[in-house]
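B., you asked whether I could sanity-check this one before it goes into the benchmark set. Here's the sequence:
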Amino acid sequence: MPKPKPKHIAVAGNIGAGKTTLTNMLAKQYKWKPHYEDVDHNPYLVDFYEDMHRWSFNLQIYFLNSRISQLTTIRGGKDTVIQDRTVYEDAYIFAPNLYEMGLMTHRDFENYFSFFKTLKTLTSPPDLLIYLKATVPALVDRIQKRGREYEENIRLDYLKRLNGLYEKWISEYHDGPLLIIDVDQNNFAEKEEDFAEIVKRIDAELFGLF
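And here's what the prediction gave me:
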């Protein structure tokens, strides 16, 4: 019996893992509608990288609102949507990291996470979560290649802490189907056979095709 049509595919991974690239490629492959992370029009991002302590809470609330709004649109629409980054990453990786680094106050973090938990009860998890696993050297290489000016000040220890939180989150993720892609081993952006392997695994997961 064929599986029902998926509504929501989500791509997760650290800064520089290749989320946007894979989202774009899969959207074309499956004729899915892509929802990208809008880094160019985020009113807090540049300020955040210049003064993380001052702008951390504002930035996380902006992301939370944006992502929940996307989820509401996805579930209410007819298209299958593939989403670049998830609401989980804001709550389980970026906000806790800012708090642990002393860049978000305890009061702000508790307020933020409580708000997230409330909103989470009103939404559904993705039909498939694709996690792009990468080592820090691979992330640094990708970040340097794309040359976004506001990312030049990202510190190595920041990426390492994020990677640790990603691994913890993924090890405990049980909300729905999960596909892990090791981007140190799979160069899907440049090798057709590597991308074909991802497509094969997605087909098996979503449609029962082997």
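One thing to flag: Strands lie at 8-13, 33-35, 81-84, 128-133, 178-182. Otherwise nothing jumped out at me.
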